[in-house]
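Here's what a typical entry looks like (Phosphoribulokinase):
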Amino acid sequence: MAICTVYTTQLNPTCSSISKPSKSHLGFHQRQVVLYKRNSTNTYRPRSSGFSRPSYSIITCAADQTVVIGLAADSGCGKSTFMRRLTSVFGGAAEPPRGGNPDSNTLISDTTTVICLDDYHSLDRTGRKEKGVTALDPRANNFDLMYEQVKTIKEGVAVEKPIYNHVTGLLDPPELIKPPKILVIEGLHPMYDERVRDLLDFSIYLDISNEVKFAWKIQRDMAERGHSLESIKASIEARKPDFDAYIDPQKQYADAVIEVLPTQLIPDDNEGKVLRVKLIMKEGVQYFSPVYLFDEGSTISWIPCGRKLTCSYPGIKFTYGPDSYYGHEVSVLEMDGQFDRLDELIYVESHLSNISTKFYGEVTQQMLKHSDFPGSNNGTGLFQTIIGLKIRDLYEQIVASRSQTPVEAKA
């Protein structure tokens, strides 16, 4: 049986009521809140009139619980772009909370709320400097509060979440986060704490190789922020020990890893413009079936037909097959090279299976819709889009499973 969580609260009996279920735009029943009066024998009965401010219990059922997705990556590794692709799959653009702190890190769409885990820093910028720790160090983060608030949101209850202000480096007053259908927690440590990790319904790690990360940071920090090459190198080197100790090991827990590497199509390439991208998918994850190319479980190497897929030097190559990753059985889909024309991506899409599309060409449509996003001409954009579609499918399966489960209320 599904277990309902009971929260006791004081309510005005003249204005409380029982809400009826309604269907969302995705066709699923939204949450139903039922109010009960607690009597002296510790059982629950429907409320009746004539009592002054009795104690009532708000029952949130498993079918209504928020689905929680974790996304881990280092700074500057594409988390923001992935979030925009993901929220687009569900419909509606993700925007900061209206009327709230203009420096809020939270993004809210029709279905999804994205929380930046930087908000759980326990030390502000000055405090970290005084203690000699980086934001990557667990000692600079409040994992107890992170766990309690993610757990509470998942159970259908709003929380007052802190805000880390990236502009001032200070901890701002908290903001109210209401339970969404899907909560995405993104940042440095979504899988670091075992308690938080156990709350995740699905987890992704964006794994950018050192060579590519360096090229990206140069492009972003020199071109957009005016940093010098020496300062960028120093920043990367200063973060590397903590990254290796606390961030990188989290990928062993991820259900899917998007790994970005230098191309193998150009000998000794060091420009980082052409990328080789792997989608590493763990086998045996509930509600998730790995994507495959041509024949599931086979080992495939495929160079698409040049008459059907326009691509300039050095071309495009796909590979697919089973492998092992940190002791787990995985399926790996790899793309090396980049597209010249996104409208021709339908040719590649037609050879992929288990991509969880709702209609033929949906992957191509999503890619064309966001052709201006970084990575839209290579495997980063393609695999981020596919994972977004897989998360939508996972969400729908979870909700359908919960709605079919009988309900048992427990205090």
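Residues 5-61 have pLDDT under 50 and may be disordered.

More examples are in the samples folder.
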